[in-house]
Each structure stands twice: as C-alpha cells, then as structure tokens.
Amino acid sequence: MLTRVKSAVANFMGGIMAGSSGSEHSGGGCGGSDLPLRFPYGRPEFLGLSQDEVECSADHIARPILILKETRRLPWATGYAEVINAGKSTHNEDQASCEVLTVKKKAGAITSTPNRNSAKRRSSLPNGEGLQLKENSESEGVSCHYWSLFDGHAGSGAAVVASRLLQHHVTEQLQDIVEILKNSAVLPPTCLGEEPENTPAHSRTLTRAASLRGGVGVPGSPSTPPTRFFTEKKIPHECLVIGALESAFKEMDLQIERERSSYNISGGCTALIVVCLLGKLYVANAGDSRAIIIRNGEIIPMSSEFTPETERQRLQYLAFMQPHLLGNEFTHLEFPRRVQRKELGKKMLYRDFNMTGWKHMDTLMVKRESGLPCAGPPQGAGSSLHLLLCGFGFDSFGNTDGWQEKGSMRAYKTIEDDDLKFPLIYGEGKKARVMATIGVTRGLGDHDLKVHDSNIYIKPFLSSAPEVRVYDLSRYEHGADDVLILATDGLWDVLSNEEVAEAVTQFLPNCDPDDPHRYTLAAQDLVMRARGVLKDRGWRISNDRLGSGDDISVYVIPLIHGNKLS
After folding, report:
1. 437 with 399: CB under 8 angstroms?
2. Cα–Cα distances in angstroms (integers) from residue 320 to residues 169, 331, 351, 352, 417, in the given order
3. pTM for the structure as a whole
4. Among 22, 164, 211, 294, which is least packed by CB within 10 angstroms?
C-alpha cells in the first residue's frame, strides 16, 4: 500500500503516469504494441501539413505556432491555431476536425407524416429554422457545419480516432430524425407514423387534477373521449438534436472499446464539438475544454468543465453504491487533508456525496420549554447569527434566556481504519485527481486505464455523456467581431474568460474586416498569449506569470455567418 501511495502522490504532482510519454505503442490497448494503429498520428487534416512539417512542428523548445495556410479555408472563415506542449509528451495530443456534413434520410427509414402546410410554414417561421432547407428534394438532405476539439491523455490514439470518426456518428444519429427536423412547423410525433397533432391548447386532455375536481369533460361524460391522466409532453426539435449528439458520443466511446482488441488505441481524450444545424449552434462538451461566445463584448459561457471537483458528488455516490469499484484501496469520503494513522480515534471534518458543505456542528443548545435543539449558542433575540443546524433542520431563535447547553456536540467524523485509505478524489484545482490518476471525469476512451500498480479500473467513474448547450443564431444580429471561441485547457489554464474576451475585442477591430484570415490571426494571437515567451525561468506570459506548457488548440468562429442562416 505504501508503494501505491508514493506512486499516487507522484501521479498527483505530474498527472497521468502511465503513457505520459506520449508513446503510441505503450500498452494502450489489449495487446499494446503488437496491434496496429487505427489511424496514423498526424495533425488536423485541414492544416494540410506534409510529414516533414508535422515533424518540424513537434519542437518542444521553439514551440512553433501552426495556423491555416493562406491557400486554405475553413467554413465561415473560421480561424484556427495550435502549438505543441513544452515536453509533457512526445506528440501534440490535441486533435481537431472541421467539416460540412450532409445528413440524409436513412434508406428504409420511417418518415413522420408530413403536414400539408409545412412547406409554407417553414418559409414564414420567425426564427428561420427552415430557411436553409430545399423544399422539393428529400434526397439532398440537410447540411450542417461541424467543429471539434479533442484533448488526448496517456497517448494520442483515442483523440486521433475520435477526430476521424465522431462526425460520422453524429451524422448517423441525425439521420434518424432528419425528416422530422425538416418539418419544423410541427412538433415531433411521439410515435413515428402518427398524424401531427394540431389540437388547440384549450382542447387538450384534462390533467388528473382537473379530472378529480369534476370539471367539464370529466371521464364518464357521454361526449368526452377516454381521458389520459396527464397531458402528453411536447418535445421541441432541439431536444431531438441534443439526444442525437449524446447518443453519438456514447456510440463513439463504445466503438473505441470494441476496436481496442484489434487496434492500438492509446489513452483517452476529452471532446468538445459544435454543430450548426437549422440556425442553431449545439455545443457538446465532455471534459475540461471550454467554449465561450463573445458578443458585443459580452461573455456567454457555452460549456462547463467536468473535473474531479465539479463532479465530486456523482463520483462519491457511485463509489458509495458500488464500493467494490474502490478495490479496498480507496475511501469515497473526502477530508480536508490526508488522514494519518496517528489520528485514529480523533474527529475530523469530512464531506460525503450528499453534501456541498463540510460536516460540522457547533455547541448544541436546547430550549428549556420545548426541548427542541438548535445550533448555538444564540446571540440574542432576532440575531442574524442564529444558525440552521446542519442536517437536522432546526432553527435557533429567541434570546439567550431559557436556553440550556447540553454539552458540546460536533459532527466531525471519528477517524477509523477505513478512513486511512487513499481518497477517491485528492487534490485541488488542476491537481485534483480521481484515484490519484486522472484529472478529467468525462471523455472518450480510457477503457484500459487502471490505478498505477493495481488492477483497479477507473473507467466506471468516467462518463462519455456530454453536456449540450444551444444558442439560437437567429435571435441576434451579429457583427464581424462577434465570435465563438473553442479551446483546449492549455489556453484556459492560464487565461480567464475575461482575458480572452479582452484580447479578442482588442485584436479584431485592428484587422481589415474584409481580410478572410483575420480570425486565424486572432486564434494565433490567443495561442501566443497563452504560450508566452521562453525565458530563463521557462515560458512566461504577461505580468511574468507562468505560461502554458500544455498543448494549446484554439478555434475562433465568426458568428456573422449566422445572420445568413436567418
């Protein structure tokens, strides 16, 4: 156990231990180096780099910033820039892809019954959802734009695979609903093949509560059809798209799991994608990359990070319900610091899955007349310092007269042998780790990731489910300097949302608005600000702060093109 604790501490200081060299043949799959790679390592295809250029870009000393060549364009004049890490891994483990996808109905798929007036209604929708569709051609399908970023760890294998294949899973999932999405004037049918329901709201089925009140149209009335207790949920179209993206992430993760027996797919990766479909941006994130919109100087967060700290309660609850996953080596409880053997029998603050705060009670006071406990001691009648007794729901109120102390009761946990085990979540901020191994809790891959020097798998604690946020482009008239920023954590580790927004809002107005490369230059500027300049004491950024030594990848996507969709 001592060896594992030492390994865990080393891991806590330096990140994921196994595979941190970035080698693609370091046992990443079932069989490791004996298996071929699913796809060869490279940089994003849209950069158009030769093999020699790829090798030159992997200079951990010079760290050249790669941008789009002048002869190349991405959809919407999107800007992109990247730089390799300062020696953390051999390869740049970030990956990216950007494509225009065409979603066509699957052959033999059941089509929802079209509404006779759907073509006319699509052309008059206030949000412009249907304006991109070609009304008279089912075969041409629906086009959507796709951007993605993947941040690999313990090797670049999973990130490379996801950058090549996730868009195909997205397309496949959208194929199941494309015909429903086309008919945007009518809510999706609950069952495929049903006639679209155009029943006015006032004539919908009564709720159970209304039925029990005996209102008009209660069950049993001769003129009233059989009543369902609850009205049917009305599912908007965007919820179908969200479900499709969530399913695409799941299918991508399952494919990696299946194929690791045939290919060497090393490590895992976070995943951040954007799909622009029918006038809306869908931002799906699993991991610690980040997306923000900068609109007229305002910052609009479009993602959340998923780390051991932000998902502590989910992880602790899973460990509480399935303690065998901890391998008798870890405890699901969190303490402010590592518990030592000399502290057995002492009381310490702790936090469990059902708590956002720390378990603690002050001296217990009892009201003489009622015998009810309260947190105290009270500070006088009406005092704001009268506290709520955590976990019991009793208030303290009144003055100090009539209160009796019943001894000092503190809910610090009494330390037992099980509490000496290594905590499931250890560390703070960017150094927080699950089982002293991994610093992100959502993503793709990691099916073979184990706690160092043990047979304890970490994958059960990791989720491939993304959070999906929606931004309706048609609700705003965007200017040339309104952008969506996507970046891996190499940028956000050293620059805040406010610093990024300030940099962009200062940079873009100084560029020629007709220059198609202005957004690439803006992406390059952000990467340069995060990487910094190499000095005697390492890479340094503004105010002599430590620069990012991680891989950095950045998209700058202009939203002015959203105006054309509406």
Report:
1. no
2. 34, 9, 13, 9, 17
3. 0.80
4. 164
pLDDT in tens, 434-489: 999 999 999 999 999 999 999 999 999 999 999 999 999 999 999 999 999 999 99
Residue 371 has pLDDT above 50, yes or no: no
> Would you state the pLDDT for residue 386?
38
Question: What does the buried/exposed string (b/e) look like for 299-334 if buried means 16 or more CB atoms within 10 Å of the residue's CB?
Answer: beebbebbbbbebbeebbebbeeeeebbeebbbbbb
474 touches 128 (CB < 8 A): yes
Angle between helices 157-175 and 237-259 (to 10 degrees): 140
- Determine contact, residues 335/350, Cβ cutoff 8 Å: yes
Q: How confident is the model at residue 91 (pLDDT cuts 50, 70, 90)?
A: very high
Task: Give the Cα separation of 452 and 18 in Å (integer).
Answer: 7
Task: Please give the torsion angle defined by the CA atoms of residues 218, 224, 226 and 228, in that order, rounded to the nearest 10 degrees.
Answer: -50
At residue 196, the pLDDT reads: 57
End-to-end CA distance of the chain: 62
Per-residue tokens: 97? 């892809």
Q: Contact 219/275 with Cβ under 8 angstroms?
A: no
565 closest CA partner among 503, 455, 457, 473 = 473
Question: Distance (Å, rounded) from C-alpha 485 to C-alpha 469?
Answer: 14
SS3 543: helix
Q: How far is CA 426 from CA 71, 263, 268, 326, 340, in A?
A: 48, 33, 21, 14, 15
DSSP 150-191: EEEESSSHHHHHHHHHHHHHHHHHHHTTHHHHH-TTSPPPSS
Residue 546, CB-side half-sphere exposure with 13 Å CA sphere:
8
- Please compute, for residue 325, the number of CA atoms within 13 A of its CA located in the half-sphere on the CB side: 19
Q: What is the DSSP string of 216-274?
A: TT-TT-TTSPPPPSSPPP---HHHHHHHHHHHHHHHHHHHHHHHTTTSB--SEEEEEEE
- Any long-range contacts for 314-323 (C-beta under 8 Å, 24+ apart)? 314/353, 314/441, 315/424, 315/425, 315/434, 315/441, 315/461, 316/352, 316/353, 316/424, 316/425, 317/353, 317/354, 318/460, 318/461, 319/353, 319/424, 319/461, 320/352, 320/353, 322/460
pLDDT in tens, 104-119: 987 765 554 444 443 3
Any idea what DSSP says for residue 500? H
CA distances for 171 relative to 193, 247, 275, 342, 440, angstroms = 22, 11, 10, 58, 27
Alpha helices in 358-512 (DSSP H): 489-492, 497-507
In whole angstroms, what is the distance from residue 377 CA to residue 358 CA? 20
Q: Is the pLDDT of residue 409 over 70?
A: no
| Torsion-angle region of 186 (φ positive above 0: left; ψ -120 to 50: alpha; else: beta) | beta
Rounded Cα gap, residues 130 and 183, in angstroms: 8
DSSP secondary structure code for residue 442 in this structure = B
Q: HSE (CB half, 13 Å, CA atoms) of 130?
A: 22
Largest CA distance in the chain: 89
